[in-house]
Amino acid sequence: MANAAGIVLAGGRSSRMGTPKAALEWHGSTLLRRVTGIVGRAVAGPVVVVRAPGQELPALPDSIAVVEDAREGRGPLQGLAAGLAAVREAAPVAYASSTDVPLLHPRFVQRVLAALDDDVDVVLPHVGGFPQPLSAAYRTTLVDTIETLIAEDRMRPAFLFEVCRVRRLDPAALLEDPALAALDPELDSVLNLNAPADYEAARARLGPEVTVQRFGALRRAGNGVPSPASLRAATLGEAAAASGLTLDEHIVAALNGDQITRDPEAPLATGDTVSFLAADAGG
């Protein structure tokens, strides 16, 4: 969405997980790298990560900005305020995400953002019987309202929703988008990982189903893998390996016909098309 930013909150204590969620391995990448990449695919504006003071983060692309929470352990409103303040000058709206939603689909982000119009300050999905404030869209001007709530020690997101205009989207409303209904019919985009068992169950799932094509000289490569082929891959590196290629400086990939990259950690989502070609032919 044009003029929309992304915010990923990484400063939670991860007490139930027992280890920082942001750095958890995800198909050769990390949860934080995946979620920032997925959010970044859905917005045209900047993506910022909000960390706790002094928190170490896994490696991120240079395009991702990092800002610090004012105080540690104060909950999502504190982090949301820091993120909104960081992007307020760049975008009128922002999608806010936690770092522990590896099944997030770009189309879900786009669907939520599309529901934010002039009459709405927050688009709040309700999935699984609960509101999802860290899978929601916010006007960046709400930072002032949030700062007032923080000063009053009213730290629950529900307090924010009491004082602004909220559009709530239940599963039926979300799935009115036919593309989202096809790509994420169970709305796994909001499935968060709180405990080790959650992580293990999610990690054991099959990767996203993507289409991989090889062009030019690479068409003859692939160790017998046809082109095009339907494969399971969560990252560009996995897609290359599954199609019999070694992703190096001699190969580039076009994601869905436009985004050119050779980053092996670039996240893929169900429905993606990855086209591999020799760097001297298309890079």
Beta strands, count: 15
The biggest beta sheet is recorded as:
8 strands, mixed
CATH architecture of the largest domain: Alpha-Beta Complex
**Structural class of the secondary structure composition?**
alpha/beta
Question: Total number of helical segments?
Answer: 10
**What is the H-and-E element order?**
EEEHEEHEHEEEHHEHHHEEHEEEH
**Ends: how far apart?**
26 Å
Query: What is the CATH C level class of the largest domain, in words?
Result: Alpha Beta
Mean pLDDT: 92
Which shape, going by the Cα principal axes? globular
CATH topology-level fold name of the largest domain: Spore Coat Polysaccharide Biosynthesis Protein SpsA, Chain A
What Rg is obtained from the alpha carbons, in whole angstroms?
19 Å
Approximately how much helix is present in the residues?
A: 25-40%
Oligomer: single chain
| The CATH homology group name of the largest domain | Spore Coat Polysaccharide Biosynthesis Protein SpsA, Chain A
Task: Explain what this protein looks like in three dimensions.
By secondary structure, the chain is an alpha/beta fold. Helix content is about 25%, strand content about 25%. The chain has helices spanning about 30-40, 75-85, 105-115, 145-150, 155-160, 170-175, 180-185, 195-205, 235-240, 280; strands at about 5-10, 25, 30, 45-50, 65-70, 95-100, 120-125, 130, 135-140, 165-170, 210-215, 230, 250-255, 260, 275-280. Strands 1, 4, 5, 6, 7, 8, 9 and 10 form an 8-stranded mixed beta sheet that branches. A 5-stranded mixed beta sheet has the order 12-11-15-13-14. Strands 2-3 form a two-stranded antiparallel ribbon. β13 and β14 (about 260) form a beta hairpin. α2 (about 75-85) runs antiparallel to α4. The radius of gyration is 19 Å and the shape is globular. The relative contact order is 0.14.
